[in-house]
Amino acid sequence: MDKKKILSDISAYLTSEADLWPHKSNWASQLGDNCLRRLVYYRTDWDKQKKPDARLQGIFNTGSQLEDIVATNLNAVGALASPKWQIVEAETLKDSLLAKANIGGVPDKRLKVWGNGKPSIEGVIEMKSMHPFYFGSINDWLDVKRHKFYSKYYAQIQVYLLGAGYDNGWLLLYNKSNLWDIKMIDIHLEYNYAEELLQKSECIEYHLAGQTQPEKINDPNECPDCPFVHICKPDYTTGGNCKIIDNNELYDVLERLRGLVEKQSE
Fold it and tell me: Of 181, 229, 197, 214, nearest to 40 (Cα)?
């Protein structure tokens, strides 16, 4: 068989897997987005997004499959540990504050620990795969919160901590090139920040009720890749021959180079 046919079959399969889902609530995984207008679009025009292409759907599928593998690996370790521990499925959030703000979402996992023979849940866990290059640059909660691209993870787990009633949780990162290369980033509930996320969700509901849209951010670094750019039609110009490059790897390289320069100047 022609290898091109096989590759074509793979692409067709992934394309058939791609789908869009209605947003009946404001997803915790998206509340860290700095564009309020985009969050409103997710509620009103979710079906007008472009479906993921085969490559992007492959990335989504890979993340889901790797999460199951990592959880299985870790639980094999936890079963032999003392005290015994296990990463278990999380429950749907039923917090009244989240319900009032119409926030939806389910944490990935919870940590169960057997102490004195009795199991107890010690907090929620959000699992994320990460490219080896980025993996090395994330080491604590501040790295997550301040990161241009991963700050949404911090917002997501803050919502889960508040909704599940825990003061502490973890962002479990695993290196895509080595699934045993694990980091558990301690995340503590930051009440003021969590309250800001609740208010953001309530603001979305306000716009929905009034059938209005927040102001455009008109950001050349954000808007071009927005799934609603064709609806929003942002007003911005780069000016002259300036070209805005939005590249995750380039951004992190420049950040690390800046850090090295600062260390040399100390």
Answer: 214
E strand or H helix that includes residue 204? helix 191-210
Per-residue pLDDT, 92:
82
Spatial CB neighbours of 262, under 8 Å, sequence gap ≥ 6? none
Terminal CA-CA length for the chain = 62
DSSP SS3 for 98: helix
Structure-block tokens of residue 29: 């995984």
- What pLDDT is attached to residue 252? 67
Residues belonging to the chain: 266
What residues in the chain have per-residue pLDDT under 70? 237-256, 258-266
State the Cα–Cα distance between residues 203 and 199, nearest whole angstrom: 6
Predicted confidence at residue 241, as pLDDT, reads 45
Q: Give me the phi and psi of 263, to 5 degrees please.
A: -65, -40
Considering the entire predicted model, what is its pTM?
A: 0.82
Would you put residue 214 in left (φ > 0), alpha (ψ -120 to 50) or beta? beta
